[in-house]
Design a protein that fits this description.
The protein has 344 residues and is an alpha/beta fold. It has 15 helices and ten strands. The strands form three sheets. Strands 2-1-5-6-10-9 form a six-stranded mixed β-sheet, with helices on both faces. It starts with a helix and ends in a 13-residue tail after the last helix.
Length: 344
Amino acid sequence: MPSTRSLSRAGARAPVRTRHVAVLVLPHVHLLDLAGPVQVLFEANAFGADYRLRYCGAAPEVASSQGLVFGRLEPLPDPRELDLVLVPGIDSRTLDALGAVPSAWLREAHGAGVRMASVCTGAFVLAHAGLLDGRQCATHWRLLDVLQRRYPATKGVGDRLFVRDGPFLTSAGVTSGIDMALSLVQEEHGPLMVARVAREMVVYHRRDGEQRQTSVFLEYRTHLSHGVHKVQDWIVANPRERATLPRLARLAAMSPRSLTRAFRQATGITVKDFSQRVRLEVAANLLEDPEARVESVAAHLGFTDARQLRRLWKETYGVSPVRWKATRQQTRSMPRAGPGGRRP
C-alpha cells in the first residue's frame, strides 16, 4: 500500500514556497531565449506561484544579439540566496569568445546546490564552466556536433526539446525554453497551474524526451471555448470526483446537450473520454512512486476496481500497469532533483 502522504499529493495543496531565480544576462544574449522562460514564470506568479526574478550580469549593461541594450543589471548575487540560475542562449557567432562567462560563480552556485537551466547555446556556457562533464544535455540541433567537439566530456542529446540530468536542465533551440519553463512550473505547482499558464500564453505544451506524448492536461487546450475550458479546469482539479453532465453543464453555463456538442467540437473527444484520460494520467503520476500499488491507486481515483484501471490502462498504453511501472523504474536514469537542487 502506498502511504497516505504519497496519495494525498494528488489532491492536497502544498504551501507555496518562494523561489529566487537569477537570470544570467550575458553579452549577445538572444531576446526570445530570455523572454520565453521569464514570461512563463511571470504568468505563473499570477496564478499563485512566487518566483522572484533577478536579472544579473558581470557588467551592469549588456547589449543583446538583436541590439536591445539591457541596463541596470544586478551584480552576481551570493549563490546561497538562489534556487535557480537561468542561462539564456547567446549568439552562436560569439561562442569562440566566452571570456564574459562567470565560470567561477556558476561553479560556486552549483556547489551550493542551486539548480541550473539553460536555453539553446546556454548549454555552451554551462559546459565552458565545466558543469556538464559526463552529463546529458541539449542545445540547438545545428550546434550539437559543435558542442560535442568542443566539450567532448558532455553527452549531447539531439532528439529532445529539453533534458534533465540531476540539477541541470538544458533545452534545445529558442522556443523550447518555454517548454522547459512550463515543465519547471508543472513540477513545482502541478498540471492545473501549468495548463492555465500555457493557455494564458497561447502555447502548445510539449513534454521532454522521457515522456514524448503531450500531456492530456494540455493536449486538448488549443480551442477558444471559455465554457469548455472551465469544464476541463474542473476535471483536472478534481480527478477523483465523478462529475455528472448536468453539473458540468451548469459550470459551463450551457445545457447538457450544448456542452456535449461544444466539447466535442472544441477538443475532438467526449467529456467522458477527457475525464478518463485525466484520471489515467494522474494514475501514471501516482504509480511513479515505487511503493504505489495498482489497487490503491484505483481506489484513490474512484475507479470501480483495479480491474477497470488495468483494462483502461492496457487499452491506452498497450501494456499492463505493472509492466509499465517496471519499465519506467528500469529506464529512469537518475532521480529528479528538487526545486533549487535541494530537498524541500
